[in-house]
Structures are given as C-alpha cells and as structure tokens.
Amino acid sequence: MTNILVTGGAGYIGSHACKALKAAGYTPVTYDNLSTGWEQAVRYGPFEQGHLTDRDRLDQIFAAYQPEAILHFAALSQVGESMREPGLYWHNNVAGSLCLFQAAVQAGCLNVVFSSTCATYGDQDNVVLNETSPRHPINAYGASKRAIEDILRDFEAAYGLRHVIFRYFNVAGADPEAEVGEFHQPETHLIPLILDAIDGRRNALTIFGTDYDTPDGTCIRDYVHVMDLVDAHILGLKWVEDGKQSRVFNLGTGTGFSVREVIDRAEAITGKKAPVVEGLRRPGDCTKLVSGSTRAVTELGWSPERSTLDQMIGDAWRWHQTGHYDK
Ligand code: UFG
User: Fold this and answer.
1) 141 is catalytic
2) In 3-state terms, what secondary structure has residue 167?
3) Hey, which end of the chain has fewer CB within 10 Å, N or C?
4) pLDDT digits (tens, 9 = 90+) for 79-132
C-alpha cells in the first residue's frame, strides 16, 4: 500500500482525511505533536509523534515510510489567537512548514497537498473571492498561510515540489459514522460552541460583533462539510500523483450564512434553544468570506454534496452527543 504522510492527522480535518485515505486504498501515516490533536483520533494508520520544526525526526519519518506524498494539515489555526500571539503562528506554521518541505525535498518526496485558507484573502468588500483574487490577510493566521503558499511556489520552481493548495472556507460537520469528529479543548469554533451552549456545556454563546455591514449585523461565512473537504484532498492527491501542474483551489460552496442564521438552524435541528450573548467584535475577523469559484468542481470533479447547513449541523450534533477524546 502507498504511504501518505499526514501532518496533523490527529486533528479535526486530518483525522477525517486519514479515514478517507484508508478508504481510497492508501496508508495514512500521521505525524502530529498532539498540541491540539488527539491520539485517539488516529485510527486508520500508524502514528508518529513529532514537531514540524524537528528536522531530525522528519528525516527519520521520511526514511522509515518513504511516503509518496504529504497531506499537510498541521498548523495553528485560530484567528483570534493569531492576533494575540503572532510569533507562535510564524514559528509553528511558517518555520515548521519550511522545515517539512526541506526534509521532503531531500527525501525526494515531491508531492504536497496543502491546507491553506480563505483567510489569505482578507476583507474584500463586495469582491468575488476566486483563486486569482489578491491575498491581503488581515490576521497573522492568514498571513502565515500566505507565506507557506509562497514557499511552495518557490520550492516548485527550484526543486520541482508539485503541489495542490486548498483554500478552505469554514469547515464544519463530522464523520456521519461518528468515528471521528471536531473536538477542541477549549472549544473554539462556531458550530461546536453553539452545540455546547444548546446542551448546557457552556452558559451561552457570545456573538462576536452585531454591527457588521451585513443584513443582520453578524459575520458571514461559507461552511463546507469536512467529509466533502477530505474528498477534495483525495482528488488533489491524484492530481499531484498524475504530475499535473500545481494548482490552487478554493473549497467552499459559494453560499454564505451569518452567525445568527447558523444559530437559528442549530436551534431548529436540535429542537433546543441556544442561550446567546451579544459581544464585541473579535479582532482579525473578516465581515464576509464566501467563495466565488467553482474551479474545484470543474477541474477536480469535486462534488460537495454534504455541505448543506442542515447536514453539517446534524452530523456535528450526532458526534457532539456521542463522541469525545480524552488526553
Ligand atoms: N463566532 C462567534 N462566537 C464564537 C465563535 C465564533 O460569533 O464564540 C463567529 C466568528 O466571529 C466568525 C464565525 O463565528 O464570524 C466563525 O468563526 P469560527 O471561529 O468558527 O471560524 P473563523 O471564521 O474565525 O475561522 C475558521 C478557521 C480558520 C479558517 C477560517 C476561514 O478557524 O482556520 O475559518 O474563514 F481560516
């Protein structure tokens, strides 16, 4: 079986990707420092603990597993935290990715699928966000991902590092079989936070800003189901394996929902009320992030069928009620 190195394979998206890789006939080798991931989420292949910045460890891993490609998920990914502690983001995300790519080139592993973000675009009022839109991130998280995209461009030119860059919009939902799911400690993302408020695990959800220039005053995001997202990664992996030219793809559905709309749907689906508090804007938040591209559909053959708000919240709710990890 073909080994694929999955950095961040113990995390939310990485663990779902490992499940999809195994189903597609690959062996996912998880490399994760467990800073935000969970060893219990590594269920579909071997686990190797380590940091992205540990070059010796990476050299060992490449030698031991001879991976054909890397799916690079490992990153710090919280917008708010990145504004408070940008150094962490530049060190872990940028220096870490640089170390990973240098090790990959030395080992002759020249296929990369990289998790980037729509946060690279920043706040662009009334602009359709497609892959050629300018990248003007307004938070350190987005800036760190933009820098990694640039490293990939330069490493392709110099060393032939073929890559697919996926700019995710807001990833949500969980494995419908609830083997793996979204679980952060403390919780950080909107849908699990709403579900926590609904079932009393937290007192209330704070809406970060109600004075944005949107119809109901709250931020708008484009939510994509994690299972659809990882399907795209299998297609991206085949793209680089086939030796096609390196390419950037947005992964979003093109439909935006406000924070209030997400809360309303979660209440409807669970049949319970979410206690809500209106709070201040969170530094670094963009008003609206919605994909304006269908490139992934037309070129990759991606079909994000599960990315309805109802299915994402429904699958997240099922996981929320049954699954969790413990350190
Ligand atoms: N929000 C609240 N209250 C909360 C948490 C979030 O109102 O307690 C709001 C945020 O302000 C934002 C929306 O809900 O408007 C979504 O917030 P998340 O924290 O769930 O997600 P972000 O949009 O901040 O960021 C996520 C990922 C990033 C990714 C980005 C792309 O964390 O990795 O989506 O938009 F880049």
Assistant:
1) yes
2) strand
3) C
4) 999 999 999 999 999 999 999 999 999 999 999 999 999 999 998 776 789 999
First to last CA, the chain: 30
Out of 3.90.25.10, 3.40.920.10, 1.10.10.10, 1.10.238.10, the CATH code matching 190-221+254-322 is 3.90.25.10
How do strand 2-7 and strand 247-251 relate by DSSP bridges? unpaired
What are the boundaries of each domain within the chain? 3-172+223-251, 190-221+254-322
The helix (run of H) or strand (run of E) holding residue 55 is helix 55-65
259 touches ligand 1 (CB under 6 Å):
yes
Would you say 184 and 191 are in contact if contact means Cβ atoms under 8 Å apart? no
Pairing of strands 170-172, 257-258: unpaired
pTM: 0.96
Closest ligand 1 atom number to CA of residue 80: 24
DSSP state of 132: T
Fold identical between 3-172+223-251 and 190-221+254-322?
Answer: no
**Is the CB–ligand 1 distance for residue 316 below 6 Å?**
no
For a pocket test of ligand 1, which of 79, 146, 148, 166 has the largest count of ligand atoms closer than 8 A to its C-beta?
79
Strands 223-225 vs 162-168: parallel, antiparallel or unpaired: unpaired
Domain 3-172+223-251: state its class. alpha beta
Atom 18 (ligand 1) nearest CA: 189
Q: What does DSSP say about strands 205-208 and 220-221: parallel, antiparallel, or unpaired? A: unpaired
